[in-house]
Amino acid sequence: MASILVVEDDDAIRDAVRRGLTERGHAVATAATGLAGLERILADRPQAVLLDLGLPDVDGLTLIGMIRAASTVPVIVITAQDDDPTMVKALDSGADDYVVKPFGTNQVEARIRAVLRRGDRALAHEPIRIGELVIDEGARTATLAGRRLELARREFDLLLALAQRQGQVMTKREILAEVWQQAYGGGDRSIDVHLSWLRRKLGETAAEPRYLISVRGVGVRLVDPDAG
Ligand code: CA
Question: pLDDT per residue over 189-206, tens digit each?
């Protein structure tokens, strides 16, 4: 259970998100404008913020900057579909993650859990452990069964991004935005190449995967191969 602030001017979406998260035991506060949201963040200190980028009073990217100047609260941005450049700018401005409309409560809750876990780990300086894979974000190192993996910068970033969403499929579009920090423009080939390098270093192949599971036509997810 977490305390969550939802900043969204669309009444129907705001109510649906509030209801969905409340039903799952979260304490949800809402705001319909950017400035009201900022006030609630400062007054209530929620554990996570869901922030619609299209608000009537303040530009969403400007608002992220204002939030970041005042708070380290994780911010999950709500974006309209097919708006990659804005999504990339939002991540660059200090947002922690995003969901694309329309989205369900499951997805939002998974994203909230992920940003909260990341925050806990960052505070504790704890590496991510998935099966025999250990990824230390601070030291930028990864080991498999105690053996250090020699990863290029982008391979490490890709592994880290997938590990932070353990078990969830990341689409190529999301990988491109988060790891390559590019809007979608047909970088599939580059992602495929990096995935195959990463696979080789993890000692697996696309035909016999262990950690990196491709979902045809969708993307890829990182799993614990021994978790069943
Ligand atoms: Ca809106």
Answer: 888 999 999 999 999 998
Spacing, Cα 108 to ligand 1 middle (Å): 17
Between the CA of 184 and the centroid of ligand 1 the distance, in Å, is 23
Question: Which CATH number does the domain housing residue 11 bear?
Answer: 3.40.50.2300
213 — phi, psi (to 5°)? -105, 115
The alpha carbon of 205 and the centre of ligand 1 are apart by a number of angstroms equal to 43
Domain assignment present for 181: yes
Q: What is the pLDDT of residues 103-134, one digit of tens each?
A: 899 999 999 998 988 877 766 778 899 999 99
For ligand 1, the distance from its centroid to the CA atom of residue 52, given in whole angstroms, is 6
Q: Count the domains in the chain.
A: 2
**101, 120, 139 - which closes a domain:** 120
- 227 inside domain: no
Q: Are residues 108 and 142 in the same domain?
A: no
For residue 45, what are the contacts with CB-CB under 8 A and spacing of at least 6? 3, 71, 73
Distance 175 CA to ligand 1 centre (A): 25
